[in-house]
From TrEMBL, chain A:
<feature type="domain" description="RsbT co-antagonist protein RsbRD N-terminal">
    <location>
        <begin position="15"/>
        <end position="151"/>
    </location>
</feature>
<dbReference type="InterPro" id="IPR025751">
    <property type="entry name" value="RsbRD_N_dom"/>
</dbReference>
<dbReference type="Pfam" id="PF14361">
    <property type="entry name" value="RsbRD_N"/>
</dbReference>
<protein>
    <submittedName>
        <fullName>RsbT co-antagonist protein rsbRD N-terminal domain-containing protein</fullName>
    </submittedName>
</protein>
Automatic annotation (TrEMBL), chain B:
<keyword id="KW-0004">4Fe-4S</keyword>
<keyword id="KW-0411">Iron-sulfur</keyword>
<keyword id="KW-0479">Metal-binding</keyword>
<dbReference type="InterPro" id="IPR004017">
    <property type="entry name" value="Cys_rich_dom"/>
</dbReference>
<dbReference type="GO" id="GO:0016491">
    <property type="term" value="F:oxidoreductase activity"/>
</dbReference>
<feature type="domain" description="4Fe-4S ferredoxin-type">
    <location>
        <begin position="86"/>
        <end position="115"/>
    </location>
</feature>
<keyword id="KW-0408">Iron</keyword>
<protein>
    <submittedName>
        <fullName>Fe-S oxidoreductase</fullName>
    </submittedName>
</protein>
<dbReference type="InterPro" id="IPR017896">
    <property type="entry name" value="4Fe4S_Fe-S-bd"/>
</dbReference>
Length: 181, 539
């Protein structure tokens, strides 16, 4: 990534992360007391904590220009929360694209320089990649909600089915036998 | 000298955000989205229980098929309860909106939805109370926070009173001691007057009414399930334990939630009871009639709870036992500890519980004559009466989730911890503001552990899971212990979603794994048939 662009990003990182958090929390319009933003205790306010640490983690990796697979766990933490909060898929994931606007605003006048402009395009492609990864995570979370329901049913009934000889587990020895072939 | 007051800078003062929500809370009706509510109670179950307005209905429909004149049914219901329960009247009158409870509810914390603030959840009912039962509300209406009772309000009650798990965390922080769980309990009673319960509560309550337990297990199914556990115990330990059923003249009757008889990981806890009682040579019996410790009637109405609870003392009397021991359960203990004695006491045909092994007199149960298995086990451990090998649990890094009702409801805080420390070498507490009296709910209590509301459950349990995540990352915790059947049923899903790799166990399962029984063969697996570390088995 362009050195100058990177320097600007590093310099404005805390502004960007603050703004990004504000934008995400704006998707909870009912939270008028500002609880999600202001309560700093990570156990009293797990959403605020997950988002603020997640954002910092993702930005850190993006600014350093590292491979964003490093930041997947942070992204996963945020998406897990968004996936169960009554949001439509678009609303749940909008925050990733909003980062583009935030970075453009943070660059201010500098955006006019052709060198910066090119670097910005490159950076925005990274955000697009991030969005695709986020989409995978989101779908995985939603699928898991349904899996949890079936798993729960299995836990409730498996012993009964086994007892009635309607279901049986394959003994471990049989697996070993197959492995040897 | 008075301390210096720090004045805000002009810049800070100008940062006030004047935005208000698009609509006032009173003008924001509830939306019913799949995944966030439970199915409505079925016609057949309300018929079985003799509850009003049995019919097929769905919360997703516009028409909930509520009979004409329902408004006066509800208002009469409020009037009756105001005169019957002083606590209800006080809770309606004294709240000063200090907000201490506001951010203590796990549902609020995980959604930011203000109607999940305990203060506003109570206000949903209080606003109607004001309109019809106070002068200020009658004359000033909305100015005094009063509103008319209409169908939108009724639907809102149904949505939010079935989004409260009656965990009472908020009441710990209320300077007046307002117990939001009681407001929810009354709210649900009122809803039941017009046939508005949820399927996951009405179904088990009806089964319990007919068969004696929530799962509807008939006597042969109960004995059959326990017999198959006995077979498994023999495979693992080489010892055949010999439980008895409905045996007259036994010293102790044992009652546990039926969840322990069926379904994982509850059955392993049940195997634990069987093994420990056998090892002690306890003179006890199971009952296939009093086969449910839990009480889903408690989530319906006082009357339903009372009816379902009756069998416990009745069976103890019939069998002629001296006292009762109860298994690991949550709300069961709020009912037994705080309601049973009033409903069906005094149990003067029973004796004050005395441990036959240690001689300890359980003065705390002087009146109810029923003690919790954790009190019993902790006492055994204190007197060194169990031969334990905690290294068998060395592969586990355990943390303990205080179940809301035993911890906040009856002060059972240290006993389970003492037990865990004696049977496990690796025990780590979650942070202070998430355990003991301040414990976070599993998010599925008070009958909300259905599966159709999985999304809502994952939200409600997020604060709990978040604290588990902390000890998982810091200490490598891989097992979440608890003393509640609903926890054992609900927490596995919560852990799978938020903290994959963390298992769920009852405390007595940990005890049984560590318990060295007289004449047992060398154990190679634990109760789940998983290899014990370093002991061979299927390795």
């Amino acid at each position: 990534m362009d050195i100058k662009f990177n320097e600007i990003l590093k310099e404005k990182k805390s502004d960007i992360s603050k703004r990004w958090l504000e934008v995400i929390l704006a998707s909870y319009p009912n939270d008028k007391s500002g609880f999600l933003m202001n309560q700093q205790d990570r156990f009293a306010n797990p959403i605020g904590y997950t988002f603020s640490t997640g954002i910092d983690g993702i930005l850190e990796v993006l600014v350093k220009g590292e491979d964003f697979s490093e930041s997947i766990s942070f992204l996963e933490d945020i998406i897990k929360v968004r996936a169960i909060q009554d949001f439509s898929p678009a609303k749940a994931m909008a925050f990733i694209f909003q980062l583009k606007t935030i970075v453009r605003e943070a660059l201010g006048k500098d955006i006019g320089q052709s060198q910066i402009n090119l670097a910005l395009l490159e950076f925005e492609s990274k955000i697009d990649d991030l969005a695709l990864t986020a989409f995978d995570i989101y779908v995985k979370c939603r699928e898991q909600i349904y899996e949890l329901r079936t798993d729960e049913l299995k836990r409730m009934t498996f012993t009964l089915l086994k007892k009635a000889n309607l279901m049986s587990e394959i003994p471990v020895q049989e697996f070993e036998h197959k492995d040897q072939k | 000298m008075a301390p210096k007051v720090k004045l805000p800078k002009p810049g800070e003062l100008s940062k006030i955000d004047f935005k208000t929500p698009a609509t006032d809370w009173m003008d924001t009706p509830v939306e019913f989205k799949p995944g966030t509510y439970c199915w409505g109670a079925k016609e057949k179950d309300l018929l079985t229980l003799g509850l009003p307005n049995p019919r097929q209905w769905s919360p997703a429909d516009e028409d909930w098929k509520i009979p004409e004149g329902w408004e006066s049914t509800i208002l009469d219901g409020i009037a009756e309860r105001l005169s019957k329960y002083r606590s209800f009247k006080i809770f309606m009158d004294i709240c000063v909106r200090c907000g201490a409870c506001a951010d203590k509810c796990h549902f609020y914390i995980a959604t930011g939805d203000p109607k999940n603030m305990p203060v506003l959840r109570a206000e949903l009912l209080r606003s109607v109370y004001k309109k019809y039962f106070t002068k200020s509300g009658k004359f000033l209406g909305r100015l005094a926070g009063a509103r008319e009772l209409n169908m939108d309000v009724l639907k809102e009650w149904w949505s939010y009173f079935f989004q409260c798990t009656e965990c009472r965390r908020c009441s710990v922080f209320c300077p007046y001691g307002i117990d939001q769980a009681e407001v929810t309990i009354i709210g649900r009673e009122l809803l039941n007057l017009v046939g508005l319960n949820i399927d996951w509560i009405a179904g088990p309550a009806a089964a319990c009414y007919m068969k004696g337990n929530h799962l509807g297990l008939e006597p042969h199914a109960i004995t059959g399930n326990i017999e198959s556990m006995v077979d498994d115990i023999e495979d693992i330990t080489g010892i055949r334990v010999n439980p008895t059923f409905n045996r007259k003249g036994a010293e102790i009757m044992f009652v546990t939630p039926s969840g322990d008889l069926l379904g994982e990981p509850g059955v392993y806890t049940c195997m634990g009871y069987l093994m420990m009682f056998h090892e002690l040579g306890l003179d006890y019996t199971w009952s296939t009639y009093a086969s449910e410790g839990g009480n889903f009637g408690f989530f319906t109405s006082n009357e339903t709870a009372k009816r379902l609870n009756y069998k416990i003392y009745a069976e103890a009397k019939r069998l002629g036992v001296k006292y009762i021991i109860g298994g690991e359960c949550g709300h069961m203990w709020r009912v037994l500890n705080q309601y049973m004695d009033t409903w069906h006491g005094p149990a003067d045909f029973l004796e004050v519980p005395v441990s036959p092994i240690t001689g300890t007199v359980f003065e705390n149960a002087k009146s109810t004559k029923m003690i919790h298995i954790s009190e019993f086990t902790a006492d055994l451990i204190k007197h060194n009466k169990l031969n334990l090998d905690p290294t068998r649990n060395d592969h586990l890094k355990v943390t303990f989730h205080d179940s809301c009702n035993p911890s906040r409801g009856m002060g059972l805080l240290d006993e389970p911890r003492e037990i865990i420390k004696a049977v496990c070498n690796n025990f780590y507490e979650m942070p202070e503001n998430t355990i003991r009296e301040k414990t976070f709910c599993c998010g599925s209590g008070s009958g909300l552990n259905a599966s159709e509301n999985m999304e809502q459950r994952m939200r409600g349990g997020f604060p709990r899971a978040n604290a588990v995540k902390y000890v998982k990352e810091k200490h490598g915790v891989n097992m979440l212990a608890n003393i509640c059947a609903v926890d054992r049923a609900a927490l596995p899903a919560l852990m799978d979603y938020w903290n994959p790799g963390v298992g769920v166990t009852g405390v007595t399962e940990l005890v049984a794994n560590a318990l060295v029984m007289k004449g047992e063969k060398e154990r190679t697996t634990n109760l789940r048939f998983e290899d014990l570390p370093g002991k061979g088995g299927n390795e």
